[in-house]
Design a protein that fits this description.
The structure holds three protein chains of three kinds. Chain B is built from eleven helices and two strands. By secondary structure, chain B is mostly helical. Chain B is globular, with a radius of gyration of 19 Å. Chain C is mainly α. Chain C has one domain. The longest helix of chain C has 27 residues, at 28-54. Classes of the chains: A alpha/beta, B mainly alpha, C mainly alpha.
């Protein structure tokens, strides 16, 4: 039986398939879209415009080569706010390095370029992208994806190729318990997020007894809560309520009702942005009082105050970094220099995600300069002896695991509609207000 | 004594949250019930409605209740456009088609909202004070949303049961061909159902802005719950939707209080599964 | 002039050979690219067995993927075997997923159309939430595997390729068997099929279980490759991805999932790398256009054309 399909159809199918293959080839080998193209978010409309920035090289410098830093970040997806800010921080660093003499190794000067992809906060392409970054784009160093879950895989790829990776947003401790040798951490690990809150509580109120800890049901928030519980109990506090809530909750009233019945001195924890705002809003509506509220991730956001108005006042939150922090710096730009640069470039005040992006690349730069080499092992070795004080805070890692051991979380508190760093005392710009007045 | 308060408060919480669930599902029960299209972009329409309320409030100081009036023509317009542009083509097709078309739509809407309004969390301040009865607190804005939910459900019920238009809709659902023979303009019915459905969804979204902070990514959770509740209450059954929502709200509330908040969605989903297996037409619909 | 069957055979053998060759002569980057493609391919074939053949839209198929992944991870962490390849555990993962399908399949497959779709979605979401609340399964943390298995693209690739081979053979066998004809009859008209003596409940259940087996194995391999398993494996996006790929190529066919998955992956990869901000928008638009204008998928178009010609 001879069944024939028309030549036209067959040809069209073949053409479609060939076009698809060509498109894939270009997507694949055409290189990432990003080396010097920077995207600006203007404040009036949030439509990103892509501007190609010509690297402001001073004519007298002859670069011996380019150091490539590669990463994926959450440009779209549930972590896109944080991921995009972090991206901006890293991009700012690139521009800063390239206009401030590059990176010097011996008597050779290198400039820097970035290669990145959108991981969409999803694991699907992490392997493909990191393999591509390392083997096709041939990056010299890596920065981790923003999400902790993705970092597990990215770190494994980095291990395979012996590439140094600086972990930023990925703050969960368990990443650094896996035996990865090439990944180092910038952020204070998740388990310590609420340590400063508990310290503040006990300093201001040595008689504080009961504490309620709540967290979003995902890895980062869980590590924060777990660490907080252990620390609180080690300090003699009673954790009267400890529970998780589902991601993207639309109602936390029952949880708050039970907390209210336990009458804790402090309510701490959280997850991401929307649930943090929801927590405080419903706490007020249900008249759930406590002397101290410390909400992770959401509270240090300006949008927190925008969404809650005056109800945001007296709420505290841990942050990796704040613009009003007072740090003395022994490497890299000062706090004000960083802020001015960032505002000029992106037209908005930086948050700790942006600062973290910049700092991650900055400490990498420091390690390269210390190692005086681009060799991964030497740079990783150099990280072990780094003891920096950057605009982002202290940086020192545990040599075996790469865990961050010096960086401190600072606590902010909203007072009169403005956000102030209130802890630790050395870095604070204002005194914390405790206890929080009733709603 | 303390236990009693928690018990009662949990009930109140559950009823309030439940009516919001019911409200949010109302538009879907009409759209899905009449046109049998699986609108996976439902949640994104809710968030769109929420953004409408948010911008009206932030830029023009318009109270959400006033925004409801704006939501009506806006929702109507969008409903017509979506119907003519998309739904018309998949309305009598296989489920997979409508599923994927609406999924594509949800991606587009999400990306648009993300691009123009960023992923920052948005919310309205507390506009209605809580009412305290003894030690029980009734959250003001949720109470307002519940009242509106009841009003809208009743409106939809009256529309479906007592108007010619409503009868036409039910005729189309029962037997499209017979309805056509009876002189019903099926196309018109579909278009109107879509529009009213989107209007209701929009209004639900406006009230979400009132009660809950949101981001462009929260559409998914509303879509999921709405589907659950529509099935629970029976397709095309507005009161069923409301009661279904209340049921889920109460179950989740009690699970959160007495077991763990983390597991409460699972309990809701398992309940739905049970209902589907035992009585797929929904708890509150009469078996035909 | 080629006929459809030859085209199918050619394409499949061609792809299998090329993809195996890639492992030996391709760059690391290309291998990683293909590896992710292979995973999608197998998943597309997996869902084709249930949705493509019977018409029952499984909207929660990711649950089997996740169960496979979690089972595998759990076994890896709790059973200390350095002599056995962890991929063996992925087979067990597949079996556990199949067993789960057996359990829930009977009640759930009695539902029709959208009800079935919603039921499967509820199952998927329920399992996702339940797993994240069980600390033995990692709870909120998921199960990191880096201390137990090493990240290895080559072994994962081979495992995936073998799974693909098996899946394609399975698909071909089903297609040509009485079982396959029965399934297609169910899709055409289930009541008629019943009347004709086909045990529709059994057939549907078998299709469901087989599709779960495949998805479970893939989930296990994936967990090993990514050295981390979390509730992300249950996300609805994965179920949708499978459905779209299958549909793009043409559901119920043997060539369909192959073409569809390749197209989906290539388009998606290209968009994500070239349009970091707008790829969702573009993808959604493409999806809508495809569903509205080519609902039978590419293979459907070919089939239609050749039916037209046959009538001449």
């Amino acid at each position: 039986m001879n069944k024939a399909i028309s030549r036209l159809t067959a040809i069209s199918v073949i053409i479609i398939v060939i076009l698809a293959i060509i498109a894939a080839y270009f997507a694949f080998y055409g290189g990432a879209p990003t080396t010097t193209t920077v995207t600006t978010l203007t404040t009036t409309s949030a439509v990103p415009t892509t501007t190609t920035v010509t690297t402001l090289t001073t004519t007298s410098i002859v670069y011996a080569g380019t150091i490539k830093v590669g990463f994926t970040t959450s440009v779209t997806g549930s972590l896109s706010v944080e991921g995009t800010r972090q991206l901006h921080g890293i991009q700012l660093w690139q521009e800063w390095v390239n206009t401030h003499g590059g990176i010097k190794i011996g008597n050779k000067i290198y400039n820097v370029s970035l290669v990145y992809y959108d991981d969409q906060s999803s694991k699907d392409n992490v392997v493909a992208f990191y393999e591509r970054l390392i083997t096709t784009d041939k990056v010299d160093f890596l920065i981790s994806p923003y999400s902790s879950g993705l970092a597990f895989t990215a770190a494994a790829v980095a291990e395979k190729y012996h590439k140094v990776m600086v972990a930023t947003g990925a703050a969960s401790d368990s990443i650094f318990q896996q035996g990865y040798k090439y990944t180092v951490q910038l952020y204070t690990p998740g388990s310590l997020y609420l340590k400063s809150t508990i310290d503040l509580l006990l300093t201001k109120d040595p008689n504080a007894k009961n504490i309620a800890i709540i967290y979003e049901n995902e890895i980062f928030a869980a590590s924060v809560a777990d660490g907080a519980k252990k620390y609180a109990e080690s300090k003699g506090l009673n954790v009267v309520y400890y529970d998780k809530y589902p991601s993207n909750p639309t109602d936390l009233s029952s949880l708050l009702t039970v907390i209210k019945s336990k009458n804790p001195d402090a309510i701490i924890g959280g997850g991401h942005f929307a649930d943090g705002v929801l927590l405080i809003k419903q706490a007020k509506q249900l008249n759930v009082n406590a002397k101290l509220f410390s909400i992770v991730v959401a509270a240090p956001e300006d949008k927190f105050r925008d969404a809650l108005g005056a109800d945001a006042n007296y709420i505290m939150g841990p942050s990796q970094w704040e613009p009003d922090v007072k740090y003395t710096v022994n490497y890299g730009p000062s706090v004000s220099e960083f802020i001015n640069m960032y505002v000029k470039r992106f037209n908005e005040t930086p948050t700790y995600h942006s600062a973290g992006g910049f700092a991650a690349a900055l400490v990498l730069q420091a390690a390269i300069e210390k190692a005086q080499s681009l060799d991964s092992d030497k740079v990783r070795e150099a990280f072990n002896s780094l003891d920096l004080k950057t605009f982002f805070g202290a940086f020192k890692i545990d040599p075996t695991t790469g865990l961050q051991i010096a960086h401190q979380m600072i606590l902010i508190q909203w007072q009169d509609g403005k956000k102030y760093t209130v802890w630790p005392p050395e870095a604070a710009s204002r005194e914390p207000i405790y206890p929080k007045p009733s709603w | 004594m303390v236990i009693d308060i928690v018990f009662l408060q949990t009930l109140v919480n559950g009823l309030l949250q439940g009516s919001i669930y019911g409200l949010v599902a109302l538009g879907l029960t009409l759209i899905w019930g009449v046109m049998r299209v699986i609108n996976l972009a439902h949640g994104e329409f809710i968030i769109l409605g929420a953004y409408t309320a948010f911008w009206m409030f932030t830029l023009y100081s318009l109270q959400p209740l006033i925004s409801l009036l704006i939501g009506i023509p806006l929702g109507f317009l969008i409903g017509i456009v979506i119907y003519v542009g998309l739904v018309k083509r998949v309305v009598n097709g296989p489920e997979l088609s409508s599923l994927l078309v609406f999924f594509g739509l949800s991606m587009i809407l999400q990306n648009l909202m993300l691009t123009y309004w960023t992923a920052d969390v948005r919310g309205l301040p507390i506009l209605y004070a809580s009412i305290n009865i003894g030690s029980i607190t009734i959250v003001g804005d949720r109470l307002m949303a519940s009242v509106i939910a009841i009003i809208l459900s009743t409106f939809l019920l009256i529309l479906l049961k007592y108007t010619y238009f409503g009868r036409s809709i039910r005729a189309v659902v029962q037997d499209t061909d017979a309805a056509m023979l009876m002189g019903v303009n099926v196309n018109y019915i579909y278009a109107m159902s879509m529009s009213i459905g989107i209007i209701l969804t929009f209004l639900g979204g406006i009230l979400i802005a009132l009660t809950t902070p949101f981001t462009p990514y929260q559409g998914g959770i509303y879509t999921l719950y709405s589907f659950l509740i529509v099935v629970l209450g029976g397709l095309g059954n507005p009161l069923g939707s409301l009661f279904g929502g209340l049921l889920i709200g109460i179950i989740e509330s009690y699970t959160a209080t007495y077991w763990s908040s983390g597991i409460s969605p699972a309990v809701a989903f398992l309940l739905l599964l049970l209902v589907l297996i035992i009585k797929p037409e929904g708890i509150f619909s009469r078996r035909r | 002039m080629i006929n459809l069957k030859d085209l199918t055979t050619l394409s499949i053998i061609g792809f299998l050979v090329i993809s195996l060759l890639i492992l030996f002569i391709g760059s690391q980057s290309l291998i990683a690219f293909f590896l992710t493609l292979l995973e999608l391919l197998i998943l597309a074939y997996s869902i084709n067995i249930i949705t493509g053949l019977t018409g029952y839209v499984d909207f929660g198929h990711a649950v089997f993927y996740g169960i496979g992944a979690y089972t595998t991870a759990f076994l890896i962490v709790n059973i200390n075997t350095t002599s056995v390849t962890p991929y063996l555990f992925s087979l067990i993962g597949g079996l556990v997923a199949a067993f789960f399908a057996l359990l829930i399949g009977a009640p759930v497959l009695r539902l029709k159309g959208a009800y079935f779709a919603i039921a499967t979605l509820s199952v998927s979401e329920a399992v996702k939430v339940i797993v994240s609340n069980i600390s033995a399964l990692g709870g909120s943390y998921g199960i990191p595997l880096a201390r137990y298995v090493s990240y290895d693209v080559v072994s994962a690739y081979l495992a995936m390729w073998l799974t693909l081979l098996f899946t394609i053979v399975l698909a071909i066998w089903i297609s040509n068997s009485k079982f396959g004809y029965g399934l297609r009859a169910i899709k055409e008209d289930e009541i008629a099929a019943n009347v004709m003596g086909i045990n529709t409940s059994l057939y549907k259940l078998m299709a469901y279980v087989l599709s779960a087996l495949v998805a479970g194995v893939v989930g296990g391999i994936s967990g090993i490759l990514y050295v981390y398993v979390s509730t992300e494996y249950f996300k609805v996006d994965i179920s949708v991805k499978m459905l779209v790929s299958m549909m793009l190529g043409g559901q119920g066919t043997i060539l369909g999932p192959l073409i569809g998955a390749i197209l989906y992956y290539v388009i998606q990869y290209t968009l994500v790398t070239s349009y970091p901000f707008l790829h969702l928008l573009i993808f959604g638009t493409i999806l809508i256009i495809i569903v509205l204008f080519i609902p039978e998928g590419l293979v459907g178009i070919i089939k239609r054309r050749f039916k037209q010609l046959k009538l001449r």
